[in-house]
């Protein structure tokens, strides 16, 4: 045993470089196996924490209503309510708050409700003082302004109420008045109130579904006042506590306890009954976490598997090299009469010693890397989960490494003694089992590739997605090895009598199997690196696309006014169109609308390239922008000059339309106009402070009525306060209004800087000459998303506040509605037509770096920040899948490091043989330069073929896998699809890096080879 131990130590020392490389690769393989399951579990736990912390407390907390069984005080009922609710809670629940709530009463021209909570003034921003005596209340500041209430004065609770309110089954309060002792503002966050929006006012609204009364928000009062009002209940709000060590299992327990009370089925507790308020939705969060958990495991598995397999492939190469160096030693042992069993033991002694040495290093490396990644990337304070799967995976990798060692030793031990003693390794035909294995791999890779290319659907990653990148890398490496060897053989025969260096290099490639064997691991490493970098980059692009759908600019503001008013504001505060733009969305099943100010879209909005592959944002603008521009003006009086040669039944008049404001159409009537040239004017006071768009004109009977007419007419001037309206005649592109409900009298229309010339003829009927600015046609130009249904487009009807469209192209995504929408210019949507303001959700998009005066103007106008692009990206980057994909960046770096390390060791091992060959050439008179060129050419061809094969295999795997899987949980109609494209720029950069690194290796190896190639080298080898 002592002799064997000494032999192992001497062998490892003699082959120190190979031994160190083998230990490193084995440790990396074991460390990767340990890291994968740990990191998959950690990212899921991190997602649980971040998801719950970002979710509104009303979604994760519990809100229950306690109804006392018998008359009692608010204090006693609150204690019973809290105790009863907490008895049902199980899991990481935090603070519980009790709020006494009165019934709803008719008062203050709406519906009011009174609340009482201990310490309410401590968790509200109060102006004045807190209620201390019965009949005193705190009122929402905005409600006080709305109702005219002032601090210190009483408010009349029993006054005149609107007729719509009288029809509701809501009682009047038993108290006639109360005193307002202070006001409060709606809480800015949910730190102390489970649902802060309950502390807001609600405006009166009427719709087809019913009547919503005005509500001034809760009136905060004393418990005694609540008791005097009679009918009351206690609301119990419980917040979810989210520590950094919460796990999915604990979340499931909390979700079950949150659903402890069945829907609409009160349960009895001490002192009364508890009813669920149905605000908690932890169950959906649990389902989302389970999906993220499976997705994280599926996404991490191919990265870890690729890393392990590349490490094992490189380990196989190094162990083969070590075994070949041990041929004399094993041949001597065989001559001394060692049995086959003892010969195998001697051969495996060194590899097993390397595996034993590498195992603890690999475990430490895996755990240490996992700890580093968890601390750097995941939520602070997250504990490191050490799961059983990691140890099982480490054992399996160790077993696989032992199998690799057995194969490497077996290739030498099973050779005949004569071959071992020959001393010269000549090319041999591939073994039958090797050919069968290679053909099996090619067939498996081909079948998976065909199935993936024929499957257009997207779903979760499956086992084929895990295998395909590795299989393609192996097949590409085998193909590159075989093709390089065959081409070198062909070139050797062809180059006789030509270039000496070419002949030498091609002959070396065709006969030196050790040189071409390096192609396979390098190809695999480069392919995995390309695939990993591509997936990571594509996922980042997809998340940017999803985030930009929600916030299509650096900052997205919500507008409280109409689109037309929002548009005017953006153009007033930013005349050059550099910082802000108006945008909006209209939800419609099957075909929603994304409405944008196309003139500013390219400068202000964020437009990911994946939204319109093959189209720039400027080309998108050109596709949807109107032919002309709707003119605008500011003034108190408008004048229009008409040159008429029209015969009509009624006096000819002109209707001028200025859109709508607050839902009210703005228009004036001018005339009548007699034959010849005449001018008419009208006051437009609403255009004095706020500019008006000049959207439409109509020639017809008085007050916009139909009339029989024929002849010609020209509108030769449009002025505001005596000055021509800019662009009113030239550039407005006036067209006959696309309105099938109105018979048009226009038979010819020409507009120019000189005026609008019309030929009119209604024939035997009546009609009007109705014009619209901007070149707006009946079917507006739009770009459609892939999820828009053609049946929905066919049913678009202006009667529901929508517009008919003519899709002029398709894009993958757009603001707010994603691939399920139609992108149109604002002018197509609002020009010269009634707009339902309730349909159009209006925003302002702000570019990063906007001046302070721009943001101040938006805030002063009552606009509020809805979200930001950075915030949306942060939410998406914290999903389990996004965190898991970060591992691909680590894998890409590691496999390249492993490939370079393996290449360095392999080159060092082959250096003596290469020096002998170079020395033999130098002895027979071959110039040093020719030898140098031959060595460089040999290495360049071998390494270059490996790089090209790796880049092609990795790119193909990326394209095939990404086109058939999803990259995250946020999948829905408004979520842009993943665009499986290959970045040519990234491939060029990778190719240049590979050429630089591998070229440097080839040059360095050639230099070292030639430098030591002397005649003495041959003498030393002969000893």
Automatic annotation (TrEMBL):
It is found in: Cell membrane. Keywords: Cell membrane, Membrane, Transmembrane, Transmembrane helix. InterPro entries: ABC3_permease_C, Macrolide_Exporter_MacB. The chain crosses the membrane at residues 300-322, 343-371, 391-413, 433-454, 466-491, 517-536, 887-909, 939-962, 982-1004. The keyword Transmembrane applies. Residues 890-1003 form the ABC3 transporter permease C-terminal domain. It is a multi-pass membrane protein. Belongs to the ABC-4 integral membrane protein family. This is ABC3 transporter permease C-terminal domain-containing protein. It comes from Nocardioides hwasunensis.
């Amino acid at each position: 045993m002592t002799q064997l131990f000494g032999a192992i130590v001497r062998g490892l020392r003699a082959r120190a470089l190979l031994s160190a490389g083998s230990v490193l690769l084995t440790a990396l393989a074991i460390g990767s196996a340990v890291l994968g399951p740990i990191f998959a579990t950690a990212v899921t736990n991190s997602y649980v924490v971040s998801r719950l912390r970002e979710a509104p407390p009303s979604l994760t907390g519990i809100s229950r209503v306690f109804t006392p069984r018998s008359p009692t005080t608010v204090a006693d009922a609150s204690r019973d309510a809290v105790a009863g609710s907490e008895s049902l809670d199980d899991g990481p629940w935090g603070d519980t708050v009790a709020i006494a709530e009165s019934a709803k009463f008719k008062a203050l021209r709406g519906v009011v409700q009174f609340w009482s909570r201990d310490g309410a003034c401590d968790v509200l921003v109060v102006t004045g003082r807190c209620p201390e005596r019965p009949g005193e209340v705190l009122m929402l500041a905005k409600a006080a302004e709305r109702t005219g209430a002032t601090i210190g004065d009483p408010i009349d609770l029993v006054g005149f109420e609107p007729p719509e309110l009288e029809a509701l089954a809501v009682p009047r309060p038993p108290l006639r008045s109360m005193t307002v002792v202070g006001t409060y503002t709606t809480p800015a966050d949910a730190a102390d109130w489970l649902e802060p929006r309950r502390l807001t006012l609600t405006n009166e609204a009427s719709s087809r579904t019913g009547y919503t009364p005005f509500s001034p928000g809760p009136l905060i009062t004393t418990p005694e006042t609540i008791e005097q009002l009679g009918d009351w209940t206690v609301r119990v709000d419980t917040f979810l506590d989210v520590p950094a060590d919460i796990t999915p299992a604990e979340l499931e327990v909390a979700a079950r306890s949150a659903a402890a009370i069945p829907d609409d089925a009160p349960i009895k507790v001490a002192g009364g009954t508890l009813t669920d308020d149905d605000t908690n939705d932890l169950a959906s969060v649990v389902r989302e976490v389970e999906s993220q958990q499976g997705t994280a495991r599926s996404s991490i598995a191919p990265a870890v598997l690729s890393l392990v397999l590349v490490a094992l492939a490189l380990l196989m190469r190094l162990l083969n090299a070590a075994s070949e160096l041990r041929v004399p030693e094993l041949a001597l042992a065989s001559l001394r009469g060692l049995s086959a069993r003892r010969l195998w033991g001697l051969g495996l002694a060194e590899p097993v010693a390397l595996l034993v040495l590498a195992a603890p290093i690999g475990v430490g490396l895996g755990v240490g890397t996992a700890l580093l990644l968890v601390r750097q990337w995941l939520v602070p304070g997250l504990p490191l989960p050490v799961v059983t799967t990691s140890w099982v995976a480490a054992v399996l990798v160790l077993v696989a490494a032992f199998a690799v060692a057995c194969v490497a030793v077996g290739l030498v031990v099973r050779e005949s003694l004569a071959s071992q003693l020959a001393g010269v390794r000549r090319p041999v035909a591939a073994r039958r089992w090797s050919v069968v294995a290679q053909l099996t791999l090619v067939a498996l890779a081909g079948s998976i590739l065909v199935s993936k290319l024929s499957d257009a659907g997207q779903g979760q990653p499956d086992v084929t997605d895990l295998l395909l990148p590795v299989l393609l890398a192996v097949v590409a490496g085998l193909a590159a090895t075989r093709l390089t060897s065959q081409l070198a053989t062909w070139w050797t025969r062809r180059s006789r009598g030509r270039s000496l260096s070419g002949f030498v290099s091609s002959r070396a490639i065709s006969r030196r199997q050790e040189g071409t064997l390096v192609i396979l691991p390098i190809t695999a490493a480069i392919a995995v690196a390309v695939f990993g970098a591509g997936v990571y980059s594509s996922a980042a692009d997809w998340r940017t696309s999803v985030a930009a759908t929600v916030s299509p600019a650096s900052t997205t503001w919500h507008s409280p006014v109409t689109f037309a008013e929002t548009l005017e504001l953006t153009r007033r505060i930013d005349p050059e169109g550099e910082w802000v733009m108006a945008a909006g969305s209209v939800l419609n099943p099957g075909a929603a609308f994304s409405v944008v100010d196309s003139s500013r879209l390219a400068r202000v909005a964020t437009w990911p390239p994946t939204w319109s592959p093959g189209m720039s944002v400027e080309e998108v603008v050109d596709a949807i922008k109107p032919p002309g521009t709707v003119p605008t003006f500011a003034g108190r009086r408008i004048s229009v000059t008409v040159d008429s040669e029209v015969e009509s039944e009624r006096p000819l008049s002109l209707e001028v339309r200025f859109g709508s404001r607050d839902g009210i159409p703005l228009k004036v009537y001018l005339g009548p106009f007699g034959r010849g040239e005449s001018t008419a004017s009208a006051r437009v006071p609403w255009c004095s402070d706020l500019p008006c768009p000049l959207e439409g004109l109509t020639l017809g009977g008085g007050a916009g009525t139909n009339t029989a007419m024929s002849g010609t007419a020209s509108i030769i001037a449009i002025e505001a306060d005596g000055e021509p309206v800019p662009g009113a005649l030239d550039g407005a592109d006036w067209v006959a209004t696309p309105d099938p409900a109105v018979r048009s009298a226009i038979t010819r229309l020409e507009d120019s800087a000189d005026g609008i010339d019309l030929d009119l003829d209604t024939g035997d009927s009546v009609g009007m000459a109705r014009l619209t600015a901007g070149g707006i046609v009946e079917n507006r130009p739009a770009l459609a998303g892939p999820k828009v249904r053609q049946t929905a487009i066919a049913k678009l009807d202006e009667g529901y506040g929508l517009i008919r469209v003519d899709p002029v192209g398709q894009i993958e995504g757009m603001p707010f509605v994603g691939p399920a929408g139609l992108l149109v210019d604002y002018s197509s949507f609002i020009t010269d037509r009634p707009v339902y303001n309730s349909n159009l959700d209006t925003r302002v998009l702000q570019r990063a770096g906007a001046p302070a005066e721009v943001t101040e103007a938006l805030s002063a106008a009552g606009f509020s920040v809805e979200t930001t692009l950075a915030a949306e990206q942060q939410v998406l980057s914290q999903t389990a899948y996004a965190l898991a994909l970060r591992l691909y960046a680590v894998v890409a770096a590691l496999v390249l490091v492993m490939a370079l390390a393996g290449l360095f060791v392999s080159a060092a091992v082959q250096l003596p043989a290469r020096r002998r060959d170079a020395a033999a050439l130098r002895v027979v008179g071959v110039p040093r330069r020719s030898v140098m060129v031959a060595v460089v050419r040999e290495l360049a061809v071998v390494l270059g073929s490996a790089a090209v094969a790796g880049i092609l295999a990795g790119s193909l795997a990326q394209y095939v896998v990404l086109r058939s899987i999803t990259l995250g949980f946020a999948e829905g109609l408004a979520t842009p699809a993943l665009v499986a494209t290959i970045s040519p720029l990234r491939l060029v950069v990778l190719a240049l890096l590979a050429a630089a690194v591998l070229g440097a290796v080839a040059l360095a190896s050639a230099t070292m080879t030639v430098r030591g190639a002397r005649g003495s080298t041959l003498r030393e080898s002969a000893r």
